[in-house]
Design brief:
The chain is an alpha+beta fold. The protein is 41% helix and 28% strand. The chain is built from 7 helices and 13 strands. β11 and β12 form a beta hairpin. The longest helix has 45 residues. The relative contact order is 0.06.
């Protein structure tokens, strides 16, 4: 009995450490399984801080721009008051100057008063905006007239001279006046007359209408010997009319040394190839034609003959009764007449000083005779 109790106590004694080990392991397991899991990082907090910082930067930049604009306008207004006072501008002229200044956002008001090209650029941009806004024709004409007065008031010189028109826009072209059109990739000119000048553009009457396609064209306008060039677009209207959109940026190419004087004199032309071998050279065959315009060595001839631009031809013309001259001429332009004939613009080349002086004299005589006839 005593032995049995001892064995039981021994078994309990032997099993107690194992129980403790099991309990310890269980407690560790419980601690691990019951330990709270760490939360993932909260990115919304960082995002909110980032957005707040960005909003603050945007606010500072906007405020700086507003302050800069106000400062710029204040400085511009001071310069405007000073410059307009010196130029003695009227209220209307001053208002136009301020509108021109804001149209191209100049950094310095002095540039508008000192630089003619900047002034013309500002007028072009401003007129374009007025036209898009639907301003009627009368107000457009008034604005252009005011810009011309302002141009002279600010001391700019008309590039075409004091006696000629200072053309700032095609709005100044008049019905009945002629312009010459040529596509950007072609040197051939097409003559067109202005039927009407309205808010949409210049309504044209073109001789060779089939040769004019909608798109970008280069225009040349001869204002009594002063040649102006501009780029514009032609639009075909549903009723068959051709409308040339207005351009407010014209460039003076040159002042012609000789005025163009209409005339009507007999002439003859012949093609002649100077590159032919001597053995195959033929006598040139002259074709009758008419001289319809003279400008010194420049001649305009109506003929049935066909030539290429740049080709050299032989020309005989009776510039005045009993005064016949001739020589080699270079074809500069070719235009198609309504009658189907070719209108050649040629230039006599290789002239001596005496021959050029004679052509100048004949041109002046023809001009005086035409003026005398008009006065009668």
């Amino acid at each position: 009995m005593i032995v049995t109790q001892i064995n039981i106590l021994a078994e309990k004694a032997l099993s107690f450490p194992a129980c403790l080990g099991l309990l310890a392991q269980a407690s560790r397991t419980i601690d691990v399984t019951t330990q709270p899991v760490a939360d993932p990082p909260d990115f919304s907090y960082f995002l909110m801080n980032l957005l707040s910082l960005g909003s603050l930067c945007l606010l500072l930049i906007t405020g700086g721009l507003i302050v800069r604009h106000i400062s710029r306008q204040r400085d511009a207004r001071r310069a405007f008051n000073l410059l307009s006072g010196k130029a003695q501008l009227t209220d209307q002229q001053g208002g136009l100057v301020w509108d021109l200044y804001n149209a191209i956002e100049l950094g310095d008001m002095n540039e508008l008063f000192d630089d003619e090209e900047i002034f013309r650029q500002a007028v072009a941009v401003y007129m374009g905006r007025l036209r898009k806004s639907g301003l009627n024709e009368d107000n457009q004409a008034k604005t252009i007239g005011l810009a011309q007065d302002l141009f002279a008031r600010m001391g700019f010189e008309n590039p075409a001279g004091r006696s000629a028109r200072n053309i700032l826009s095609t709005c100044q072209f008049l019905p009945g006046e002629k312009i010459f059109l040529s596509p950007a990739d072609d040197s051939e000119d097409i003559q067109a007359s202005i039927v009407r000048n309205d808010i949409k553009g210049l309504v044209l009457n073109v001789r060779a209408k089939s040769a004019v396609k909608p798109g970008q064209w280069r225009g040349n306008f001869d204002d009594h010997g002063y040649l102006w060039e501009f780029l514009s677009a032609i639009e075909a209207m549903p009723d068959g009319r051709l409308v040339l959109s207005h351009c407010d940026n014209l460039r003076l190419l040159n002042r012609r040394a000789f005025p163009r004087i209409p005339t009507n004199r007999p002439a003859m032309v012949a093609g002649f190839d100077l590159t032919q071998p001597v053995a195959s050279v033929r006598m040139p065959e002259f074709v009758p034609c008419r001289l319809v315009e003279i400008a010194g060595p420049g001649l305009k001839i109506i003929t049935d003959a066909k030539f290429e631009i740049g080709r050299r031809i032989l020309v005989l013309v009776e510039l005045a009764p009993g005064r016949v001259t001739g020589g080699t001429a270079k074809v500069r332009r070719i235009m198609q007449e309504e009658t189907g004939k070719n209108c050649l613009v040629v230039e006599l080349v290789g002239l001596t000083e005496s021959e050029l002086a004679e052509l100048t004299c004949i041109t002046n005589e023809t001009a005086r005779a035409k003026m005398a006839k008009e006065e009668e």
